[in-house]
Request: fold
Amino acid sequence: MSTEATAGAIYKRLLTYLGPQKWYFLLSIIGFAMFAASAPALAHLMGVVEETLNEPTQENIFLLVSALFAVYLFRGIGTFLGKYFTALVGREIVHALRTQLFNRMLRLPSQYYDNESSGRVISRVIFDVEQVNGASTKALTTVVQEGLTVTLLMGYLIWLDYTLTAIFLVVIPVIGGLVSLASKFFRRYSRRIQKSMGQVTQVTNESISGYREVRTYDATSVEEQRFLKASNENRKQVMKFALTNAINVPLSQQVIATGLGVMIYLMFQRVASGTMDAGEFLQFIT
Reply:
């Protein structure tokens, strides 16, 4: 089974835990949709700003300020609904997973514990389940909030000028390739981080629970070296993850900046030729 298929199967399984939380989940979706809808609204207001500058009457200023206040109030309500209810759903999933995992582990045969370190077992209950929560809530935010934001903004761009939008769309496959490549490294290092965290937990648990034996046999330095090795491995894997992320983000931004630079050049050509006014320029660039 491929990594992608496995990831898809995992998220489908996670969706089965949403049943009792479906109304909270729906509220979070509504919140994300509200946040996404505010993005093109704010972009459109930039054109209104330009119009108000050209005709700064009290009525126009009041309408602009009122519209800005209303959009940010709408956005704020959406942000609250999305963040709070996503966190609520995430914690309920963690609670259900952690309880189910613990109950299952109590019924496993003794052979399982003979072949598995206690640290790794504890790490599964404490660390791995928490990672599932982080991955699921981030995935929900990315797919729903960011997905809707991109979709609505893209629709607004096409409505403003479909030819300029088509030029910017050229960079999307390049960005997609970079994200796909980085995701493979992220998954690989995430698995290694989980494994190394289990080793840190195991050494810590064994040293603390057996501290009398450690002192009796003068094994303090041995335990220090064991912990140093486990902690150092965890540090290396975390830094590999951080390095991949640190390279991926600016590289993707540079690709976007290239497409944006070409687009801005063409927009200024249109402004110079009179086919695009200042308000449309501000709306599009925003």
